[in-house]
User: What shape does this take?
Amino acid sequence: MRQGLTGRDAARASGQRLVGRDAELAVLEGLIARGAVRGDAIALLGDPGIGKTSLLRAAAERARESGFTVLETAGVETEALLPYAGLHQLLRPVLGQAGALPSRLRRALLAAFGEDDAAPPEPFFIALAALNLLAEVSSRRPVLVAADDVHWLDSPTQDALAFLARRVSQDPVVIAAAIRTGHPGRFLAAGLPQLQVGRLDDPSAREVLAVHAAGLSAASQERILSEAVGNPLALVELPVAWCAAGAPGPGCSPVFVPLTARLERAFAGRIAGLPAPGRDAVLVAALGTASELPEILAAASVLARRQVSADVLDEAGTAGLIQIDAMHLRFRHPLVRSAVAAAEPPARHRAAHAALADVLRAEPDRATWHRAQSITTPDDGIADELEAAHLSALRRGSAMSAIWALERSAQLTTDPARRGRRLLLAAQHAFALGRADLVGGLLKTAARNPLSSIDRARMEWLREIFNDGMPGDAARVRELCAAASRAARAGDLDLALNLLLGAGLRCWWADTGPAARALVAATVSQLPAARDPRYIAALAVAEPVLQGKAVIGLLSGFVIEDAQDADALRLLGMAAFASGDLVRGADFLDRAETVLRDQGRLGLLNHVLCLQAPTCLATGDWDKQIAASAEGRRLAQETGQPIWTTQSLLVEAVGQAHRGHADEALELAARAEQMASGQHLNALLSSVRRARGCAWISLGRYGDAYAELRRAFDSADPSYHPRVRFASIMLLAEAAVRCGERDGARAVIAELERVAAVTPAPVLHVYLLYARAVLADDASAEDLYRTAMAHDLTRWPWPRAMIELAYGRWLRRQRRVTQARPPLRSALTTLNLIGARSWAEQVRAELRATGERPPPARSSAADTLSPQELQIARLAAQGLSNREIGQRLYLSHRTVGSHLYRIFPKLDITSRTQLASRLGSA
Assistant: This one.
């Protein structure tokens, strides 16, 4: 139902004109004008009654005049626990077009709205379905999405709106969302443009007041102007309150009372004058979770103990408190709803909830919710119903509803142990949402109850799961190992493995010392679960060197092609990466990426991409590294995982340095170092040294590069990490040779040779092939080069090309020019292919020194395209359709088409069939 021009349109002083909002309207009209060709999003921020809704409506009217389809939704505080209620309201006018969506997307969307029997998939998959539906609608006419009171929309809808807002730039879809100041949420966290809606200036405020306070004296108007402080709603409502009560009236509260409270008081004055049946109906509407008039009147009849009709609401409508049509009741402003609630005592609230529960017997979940609000003493029966209801909420995709149900269930539970268990379960769901604040509060409450040993262990796990990447803290590692042992003795092997994986990750990200690492490995080894991916991953991240042989042996028992469990594949990929088996890790991670994309699990997909990116650098898929780093960083920011954001920055920095973009690499490394230093994250600081050292090499500053890289191998330096240092071996050797530090580098390599005797980590053994030969004296160098080149390095193109470059350079310096050319040519071919521009330029210089004219450097696709364009081009080259690419990358298929339209001229091609050859020629 569309509301009229009164009510919340408080800033309208005459006709259709918004007074004092020219600047804000210009911004919104600009978005709409541009929205016919490209999408955009904006958040309108302001205090209650400041005119956000009026601006949204003005934008909607302007959009309709411009031929837009306008879709609207508005949050209601009492409906915030109904999953996808806001998204359903928004899309309901166009759901008839959902038939154009692929079957999986269509069923996902309809299941979220309770219109399909399928269980709703991952929230991001539902958001992807909504994105594609908007793309379909916008293919006919541009679309304006107007979302009011976003802070009171249900959490899944807020997440979906943020997802949409980040991805509509290539579709003619404009999203405008109004949010009350002081209510941070997913939409604001998306980093979108914001429009601050402030108070009206004095001339505009006087113009509005002149319309609504014409009968008041000049002195009274000045007092109201002073109290209203430019708030349009106050300029309309305070004169009404003044006239109704007589001066000084409720509008003349002391200045220290917040304006919101004064407005609520003004509304409350009108509520008090309503007849009892009308007051009952308004109270039921304020506390209910639906706006349907029949439901409100039925509950009001129970509360009043007599039949009531819609006529009882006439005075509330006349008083400007509500707006009604044949089937729905709407409050004129959210402050009216809160004023209704504040005006009634708790006993009346409980009676209204009981009445609602009585009329909702056909909807047991909602009835249970209201029944739980109608009592003040423990009731195990209702507590059990709430625990059962939380499962229904999860099936509908609302973890917040499930958390509330469990928390209230715990409050109504008489048995303290069951109470604590329910709170812990609520905390688990809060973790799934990424809500560290909720987890902490629930755990604090749970700790006040007597817990079993297994529940105490579960609490330790819940305290830990938000701490990936926190400083190592050997004492905390010991606590986690002890809790894991208790869980194992109690028979909860899953919990034990989860705790040990958390302990292992602490050892990986930051230095916990050898004793703590050994304790994790020993505790893991005692568990009868050697085939469980968590077992292998915990062992690998805790002791990547000393347990490397055992981990790689366990990994060899898995057939990647048969695996379907995405989380298992992710953990196995993590284990392979940690133990240095990067080729196997790439295979696990590639498979995990495919499955996770298919399931829409972006939180875990982010981990996979952030591990894939450095693996791609080592295994020669440098174009994929660009895409994985960019998407991984974006998803890490979207899902609130700062440690993975830093990891992505560092891999991007190394990639930029290898491609010759030293300035960009140094800037990215500096940003990442700032993030990592505060938490003493050795794993990331080691990568900082690598990125910076590689950048200095590309600039020819070999002494600086050696000094930087040498720190990664100094066990007393914060940058030292027993496994991550392996990635810098070749760079250290290269820098040492160029700046006369061979002896220092040889000492480092000698220590690594002893490590190589302990672990079969391929990354260590492959990189040592290069370092041994480069650092050798002339008498032994050639044998070492030949030995290195005899190895099968098919899956290691960069190390192979680097060995060929170094060998060709050595041969040229030995005046064996003819023999130097073949390895140099081979190196140039490989380095051009993978996009290693910095190193390719060195090969060209060497070839020119042999008297050969190498082919000129050619710009690669990676130089020409953005990371997302490159990703789309690669997938299109593999034969995927626009729809398939869109589903993989969480974009609308029309966005994919728009990208391809720009990609073709950039690559100087005219069809998809040319993509593969053009990308391969990079």
